[in-house]
Please model this.
Amino acid sequence: MRSKHTEDAPNPRHTPMQGIRFGGMNFDRLNIEPGGPAWIWPVLILGTVVIIATRLTQLGSLSDQGEFLKYTFYAAEIIKGRIPIDRLQDLSPGYLWAVSGLYALSGPSFELLRALQVCMLGVAALLAALTASRWGGIVAGVAAWLTLLFSRAALVNASEAEPETLLLLLHCAAIWLLLRHNPEKSDRHQIFVILAGAVIGLATVTRPSSAMVIPFWCLWLWWASRRPLSKQCDVQSTSRINQFTPVFRLLAGFALAPVVVLLLHLSLTGTATLMNPGTVSYEGMNPRATGFSGEAPSIVKQIEPSFSQPDALHLSYRRLASLDSGVDATPSEANRFWTRKALRFVMSYPRAAATLVVRKALSAFSSYEVYDLRSMMQRDMELRATGPWFSFGFLVAIATVGMLASRKTVAFPLLTHASISFIIMTVFYVSSRQRNAALPALAILAGLGVAHLIQLWASKRRVFALTLTIFIVVFSLAANYTTHAQREDMHRWRAANAAAHIEDSIRLAIAQGMPQKARWLAAEATTWQQDTGRTAAPSLVQQQIIRLLPQVNDPERRFDLSLAAMQAGDWATAAHLLKELERIHYYPVRGAGVASTLAYHQARCALHLGENERAVSFTATALRQAPGDPDVLELALALAGSSAEMAGRLPSIQSASAFSDGVTVALSRAKALSDVGRPLDAELSLEILLSEAPELQSIVSRYRTQIGLLEPGT
Model:
């Protein structure tokens, strides 16, 4: 049985029909219609239900990693009548009110929210199947459907209380509506454009970056109106106003949701801001940025617990901006403060900034999944064994084939829609959550690519089909290649998990009245992460290092041990480990907590071992390898201040305050002064900091212990 196409069916020149070539695809040979047989859709719907039930079972069988509390917490507050006016601009309004509406109907339940989001993923897969089948036949539809339902990253995102799954559904719905548009049909058919605009408006109030797709869809609608799809329609008879009518409809539908939210924010907060962009520009472009999931200054995470609200990252950033300016910074002022720091880094070190951009551009197409929550990374790791899953690189490869095989009528809007996410990741940072917005367009293009390969094989053009298949395999393998930066990122998550598990054991040991075991475990945690929030006795840390050294071979872990040895005051062991790492050309990429150059750490060891000449040489190398790093810059300034001879051997030294906040610079200065043998000056630097920010007392005390100004327990 074949499906019946009525008035809403696309024009024969618009959609591949039997005997019509579509971007190289001749569907007459496959004897299929774009809509497919009528029985296929009940089968896909039933299959979606089965797969969604399986996915929920898989998620339920994973270890409990907690949840991201920000949106669920504030949604619960809203249904109690307590609107968080001071935090509205830090939250996604679309997602916040959607969760609040769900909680108002059913009561607070993270499990229900997660189940609903997994169901959203299933609906998005069906919409992608509808769109792909309309343009490439049922084979393309089934392929697009499978692509979304077997995306591990999409499932992981759906398992957390974050806006990206809602964004995935909205983008999928917008594409489906827009690609149903046919300028030659009746006004009833044109309602799809208005609805699509409204859906993109909802996506924009969920994530403001979604608005970037509007100009490209406007261009596509104008182009489609200028170039009629059938020969019966005269181009000259279409007035310029009529050519722009679909564009006006799209913009009218789009404006509704953002205008409502802006007016709501204006009435509640006095500021017409859709959503505070936060500091993503700085997190993606600073001296310690890795290109993965944003790199906030370590002090931001350290002061965040001092706020009673969940996810107080924005508040921490504002507090640091306020300390620098001397007045309470508004969200807009804080954004400008951190954006200026990022721009100053780009202008001062264009080569380093360009290298970081290239790294992000390449990583955006990689199969490596990047998350910013430990719970999401843990779920991703546990779900790998429950496959099969489609990797992101494999999806991009097949989508590329679909793009090349498709008419520009459909390839252009889908390509540009997907490209927005890649542009955002390149400008800011790579994240699997950011990829979610690109998945609908990529899934549809991938469906067209699969249909094209099958058509080529059926039409005896098998050499060409094999060539494209080889391209897909090669691209997928290249995308699966693990780079050094990715290995470093994976190691950081491994270290975070290890430190968290040890922390649980420490709390249990304390509860059981075993303080000696707790101290021993604290020393072990230090060998994974130096800033664990606890202080460990240097002698115990040294014992742990001696115990672990014969067991540890990977360079990432040995670098951890060198950092722990420095913190314990065992500079000879640290210097030996660093020399070994230098010999195998290892270099660290550790983000905000640690300078990403061996030379800096070797310089510190040399200073404490009395090798001042070598320390100057190492510092000069570190200035080249880690441009703008506050620790490196402050150490160079401290050495330059020690003697004119040392100053003459160092290259020009920028001010660390140009690229970092005042608290970070003050802490880096204290460590540098301690390293060059000026502990009194280091103490003075910390005292000045405490006079400006007394709430940092506990952080500064712990820092004094870490850099050797205080003994543990003092």
The first helix runs from residue 40 to 60. The CA atoms of residues 2 and 37 lie 4 Å apart.
